[in-house]
Amino acid sequence: MSAGSRSYTTGLWFHISDAVRRFFSGDIWYSFCHSPSVILAALVALVFILSALLAPWLAPYDPFDLATIDLLDAELPPLWLADGDPRFLLGTDDQGRDLLSTIIYGSRISLGVGAAAVLFAMLLGISLGLISGYVGGAVDALIMRVADVQLSFPAILIALLIDGVARGVIPKELHDQIWFYVLVFAIGISGWVQYARTVRGSTLVERNKEYVQAARLIGIHPIMIMLRHVLPNVMGPVLVIATIHLAIAIITEATLSFLGVGVPPTSPSLGTLIRVGNDFLFSGIWWITIFPGIALA
Q: How far apart are CA 259 and CA 167, in angstroms?
């Protein structure tokens, strides 16, 4: 590793460690530790994330393993109701799959799509926001006008439009193989504007500060100035937006799947489970919809 690379790595690590230190000594962490409702919400989110990540070890059954599925076990009620089966704590769905296992695996799919979509939207929004704020002029005006136009439409409508176009252009066999990337692209495109506008505003402030002016005078390339000097100082608000956007992305995926244009029926996401269970909701088989809905909430 060259001296320049070591210097850059050391400087980046210093910025990260300093940001972590300021976070844990700041008002946000203090307020978090003294708010029972926030702590409870964080614990629920942590349980949801860990359950999704550890699905193969936590789920009683594998809903993708046909050997564990029996149609004779279809639509069994939860354990505590009459005719409940001790093997299935929350009952079974219309295909005879254990509902608890299906929810855990469905959470994994929903969380994976949501996290990937947030990462894509964040990278796209940060890139366009940095360029817009640092370059300015016609480039800034063009990017912000596109953002304004997109903000005039609901995010779910944009994601639905992109997914619908992809289904019309891509052959069904291929779409069934790349549905994850299509969903990530659709949801990510619908959410980049918030990141871009936030980063642009912070970049407009940072670009006129002395350390940026000094970097320009000594001939540092504009891309390096944006990435090394401006970006670390605008990441605070971006991370806050990302935490909120993750929940929105998961809800968007569930909505698309509920409408039948998201995750394929063969993959048990939370939205797919709710859509399938909706057909049985008023016939007394309420658990197929209610329990996935509670997990999504």
A: 14
